[in-house]
Amino acid sequence: MTPAIIRLFWDSVSKAQPNLLLNLDDDVLMSLLVDQVKERSNLDSHQQNDLSHYISDRLPLIREMAYEN
Fold this sequence. Notes:
Order of helices and strands: HHHH
Shape: globular
Radius of gyration: 11 Å
Oligomer: single chain
Number of helices: 4
């Protein structure tokens, strides 16, 4: 996964409404975040899969950040 994709992902997280990040179940949240990055970058299926795994590993951090906002 490229640094540009990671930046787009974290930018999407920072712009998302905290209640959205806190209240969606894991699968829906992952799909939403992947879709947001896909809107801003052309991801192939391998990159989408990598991004999904990246998000999955960081869901607790994402939710903690949303809770603190």
